[in-house]
Amino acid sequence: MTDTIDHGAKKYASLAGEAQDEPFKTLSREEARALRARLPQVSPWRVVAAQAAAGLLCTAIVWLVTQHSGSAWSALYGALAVALPGALLARGMTRRRGAGSPVAAAAGFLFWEMLKIGVAIAMLVIAARVVPGLSWPVLLITMVVCMKVNWVALLWRAR
Q: Cystine design at 139: which of 9, 71, 74, 111 (Cβ 3.0–4.6 Å)?
């Protein structure tokens, strides 16, 4: 009674073998151009603009529902705490520089991403001093809504 149980190991091994057997193919200039046309890029500025628009919409909804200026300012500041650092990252990543190494590109991205996070944290730290009648729940909910707009970029790319 020492039968071994095959949990599909042979199936997965054959799939892994098939993937390794396929040679790597370098794209020609025309093939790369056709691939870029099929998979268009979404501008980071468009995403930042959509985040700002979502923040303004949240601010208007909060104002209409609460009629409280402190809540509206909190929503607006929450949107600003997402859109401003996002614009900073977009600016850093879209600057035209000479063709550098992939390592330099990754390091540049990490630098701008850390700067974005630092600015967002700094804005949250000073929020209580800057926003009159601050409502943390409103500010944080607006921030979450604005951050989730990034997922809309996937829909734009699918079109």
A: 74
